């Protein structure tokens, strides 16, 4: 039920949709002679205008991405690498027959590089589908095809394909893997998603090291001049969703900390 409710609520709450709905509401009220309609219209249109001019996505994402710094020294021994879903495009893969990746592709490429440097490690992917209308392929199916094409031996891979969110990723993968005390496991996901992921994995019983990838914040004039409005909106919405997710998971008892830290 929580999965379905979260999907249904996010559609009107996501910043881009909410801004458009506010703008339309305000214009409709103004058309009917309600002068106070200028306020929701100004709020909706003003937000989109500010986002087009300013990199508002950066202050939303940066605290999330900086919370768990990437280790400066790679562990000498790695028992396993857990990779969270979210980087593959199931419907495109199903339609075209080739593994399709999105902007979080580093979630899928970084683990392969780690695996080649650590022949003792095993690779575990966790992800079913996050859609209310799933297709024929799960995220795990796409990951299996991609990593097989990249030459990863089948005996070094394991796949969990029932989970639909980060909480289920942590719980289901813990049951699948059964990590032992003293083992070294890395958690690979987007840097902005790492605080919520680490909180949930710790709650599920994991002793695991954050290995963030897919950074979206930087510095310099590029963040002002080179990033398009659609990208800014997408990144702002992603960051907003992570902050909402942190609060929701804490209230539901899925993590012990509101903003997990190293």
What does this structure look like?
The protein has helices at residues 2-13, 15-31, 38-53, 57-66, 90-96, 106-117, 139-149, 166-177, 194-203, 222-225, 229-251, and strands spanning 80-84, 122-126, 157-160, 185-190, 209-213. It is of the alpha/beta class and 262 residues long. A five-stranded parallel sheet has the order 3-2-1-4-5, sandwiched between helices. Helix 2 (15-31) packs antiparallel against helix 3 and helix 3 packs across helix 11 (229-251). It is 51% helix and 10% strand. The two termini are 31 Å apart. It is built from eleven helices and five strands; from the N terminus they run H-H-H-H-E-H-H-E-H-E-H-E-H-E-H-H. It is elongated, with a radius of gyration of 20 Å. The protein has two domains: 2-64 and 223-250, no CATH class; 70-215, HUPs (Rossmann fold, 3-Layer(aba) Sandwich).
Write a compact overview of the structure shown.
With 262 residues, the protein is α/β, with parallel strands linked by helices.
Structural class by secondary-structure content: alpha/beta
Strand share of the residues?
A: 5-15%
Distance between the amino and carboxyl termini: 31 Å
CATH architecture of the largest domain: 3-Layer(aba) Sandwich
How many individual β-strands?
5
Task: List the domain count as a whole number.
Answer: 2
Contiguous low-pLDDT stretches (5 residues minimum) are none
Biggest sheet record: 5 strands, parallel
Task: State Rg.
Answer: 20 Å
Q: State the share of residues found in helices, binned by percent.
A: 40-55%
**CATH fold node name of the largest domain:** Rossmann fold
How would you write the strand order of the largest sheet? 3-2-1-4-5
What do we call the CATH homologous superfamily of the largest domain? HUPs
Q: What string, H for helix and E for strand, traces the elements in order?
A: HHHHEHHEHEHEHEHH
Quick one: overall form?
elongated
- For the record, the CATH class of the largest domain is Alpha Beta
Transmembrane segments: 12-31, 38-56
GO biological process, one term: peptidoglycan metabolic process
Domain DUF218: 79-245
InterPro entries: Cell_Envelope_Assoc, DUF218, Rossmann-like_a/b/a_fold
């Amino acid at each position: 039920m929580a999965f379905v409710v979260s999907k249904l609520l996010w559609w009107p709450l996501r910043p881009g949709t909410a801004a458009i709905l506010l703008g339309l509401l305000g214009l409709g009220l103004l058309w009917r002679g309600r002068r106070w309609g200028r306020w929701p219209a100004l709020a909706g249109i003003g937000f989109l205008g500010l986002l087009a001019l300013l990199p508002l996505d950066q202050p939303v994402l940066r605290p999330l991405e900086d919370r768990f710094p990437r280790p400066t020294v790679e562990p000498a021994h790695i028992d396993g690498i857990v990779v969270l879903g979210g980087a593959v495009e199931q419907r495109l893969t199903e339609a075209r027959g080739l593994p399709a990746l999105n902007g979080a592709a580093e979630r899928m490429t970084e683990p392969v590089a780690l695996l080649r440097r650590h022949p003792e490690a095993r690779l575990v992917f966790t992800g079913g589908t996050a859609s209310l209308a799933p297709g024929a392929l799960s995220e795990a199916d796409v990951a299996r095809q991609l990593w097989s094409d990249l030459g990863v031996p089948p005996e070094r891979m394991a796949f969990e394909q029932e989970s639909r969110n980060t909480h289920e990723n942590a719980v289901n993968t813990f049951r699948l893997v059964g990590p032992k005390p003293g083992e070294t496991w890395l958690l690979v996901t987007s840097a902005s998603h790492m605080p919520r992921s680490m909180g949930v994995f710790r709650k599920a019983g994991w002793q695991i090291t954050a290995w963030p990838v897919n950074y979206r914040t930087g510095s310099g004039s590029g963040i002002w001049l080179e990033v398009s409005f659609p990208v800014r909106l997408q990144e702002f919405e992603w960051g907003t969703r992570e902050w909402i997710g942190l609060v929701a998971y804490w209230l539901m008892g899925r993590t012990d900390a509101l903003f997990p830290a190293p």
